[in-house]
Structures are given as structure tokens and as C-alpha cells.
Amino acid sequence: MKQNLRLFKAGGASLEYFEAGSQTPVVFLPALGCSGTTYKEVIDLLSQSCHVFVPNLYFSINNYAISRLEDYVGVLQEFIKIKKLTNIILIGHSYGGAVALKLAESNKKNISKLILVDSAGLPVPYSLTQLFYLLFVKTWHELKYTNQLSILGRLVWDFSFFVLKSLPQWSKTTKEIGRVAQETQIQFQNIHVPTLLLWGKTDEILSLEYAEKLHKLLPNSKLIKVEGNHDWLLFRYKEFGKLCFL
């Protein structure tokens, strides 16, 4: 199904997002540096039965790039309000999962289900430098998907574009990434929406132990472990689609 790139503007915010499909609203929050193009196969699959919105998480307010969870949530709440979205299935992958958790914490009435895929949200036991090294390791591991190089190519291209676009404010961006990685910013006790955690058994960045901790903190959650690494849903998108609607 065709994905349409659109622009949302409100309160000084300028947000690009992809839209596809109809019926049940799904808001899909991608990993850091990724966009709707990165998840083309995932979005094509979901949009067969859902109305999918994929906001790019590198957007600006008054021409300044933002990176704070609170800023993301403020703009996304306005987006949901203007679009009149209700009974949303909210999906977050990696860094997008941290944003999804923060949004679910403060937007209880409009979200019917939360799906977290190898999601951030808790402090990690390593530095920002180590995090970027693990991102490299993750990408190296993904070279095994020789029959899906187009997916890997889009992933690398989109992340590289994000880095280039972020260079003018790289210090601010990395500072906030470090803040998310090192501090607990989510009030987990305020999240009661049914939550499904989908986790790659060989995740290089956020381990299964990390997933178990997150699972225990979310009172209405279920954890399913799947074959694959941090980005498994990109390469095993059919399995991901089935798991989303168990």
C-alpha cells in the first residue's frame, strides 16, 4: 500500500509523518534516526488492516531540532488531538519505545494498546560511546540478511541522513540521548494500558534481562521473546505483524 509523506504544523512545530491505510489507528514511533521508509515492509503489512501514522522523530519547534521526551510528547499529543485519533494502537521500537511510554503515561484515554519492540525506557549500564559502538555491532550482525539487503540499505541510509541533519545541534542531541539512556524518566505506575513487549533474543543493545525489568515495571504487560536481534522486526516483519494482533 502506498505511503504518503505529509507535514504537520502546530504551535511552531514542524513534523513530517508517513500515512497509509484506513480503519484502526496505529501510531508507530520508529527507532532513533529511522523513519517510515526504514520500516516500509512493516508499514505496508500493518496498513492492510489499519490506518498507520509514522511520525519522524527528528523534527523541529520554531526551527530548532528537538530531542527531549517531553517535547516529543507535547507535539504528538497535539498531533493526536488535531487528527481526532482515538482507540490508538501505539507501537514504539527502540528509542521510539521510550517516547511511546512517555506518551502512554500522559495520554491514557486515547490509547487502547501499547506495543513495545526492543524498547528503551530504563537506564542502560554503558556509556554513550559504548552505545554507538553497539549500534555498529548491531549493523554488522545484520549483514547476514543477504537476501534482504535493500532493507539494511534503507536502515543505514536513513540513520546516516539523521546524523548529518543533526550535526548542527549534535551536542544537544547526544546529551538528550545520554539522558534517556542514563535516567529513569517514565512513571511506570501510571501506565495501565494493555502492553505487549516483543523482544529479540539476541538483542545487542537492550538485553533480555533489560526486557524482564521493563516487564515487571509495567503492571498490565506480557513479554514475548522472538528469534532475532535489536532490529528483528525489519527482517521478520510478517512474524511481527502476526504477534501484534494476538
TrEMBL record:
Keyword field: Hydrolase
A GO CC term assigned to this protein in UniProt: membrane
Transmembrane segments: none
A single MF term (Gene Ontology): hydrolase activity
Pfam families, sorted: Abhydrolase_6 (PF12697)
Domain AB hydrolase-1 span(s) in chain numbering: 26-235
The keyword Methyltransferase belongs to this UniProt entry's keyword annotation: no
InterPro entries xrefs: AB_hydrolase_1, AB_hydrolase_fold, AB_hydrolase_sf
PANTHER family on file: AB HYDROLASE SUPERFAMILY PROTEIN YCLE (PTHR43798:SF31), MONOACYLGLYCEROL LIPASE (PTHR43798)
Protein name, per record: AB hydrolase-1 domain-containing protein
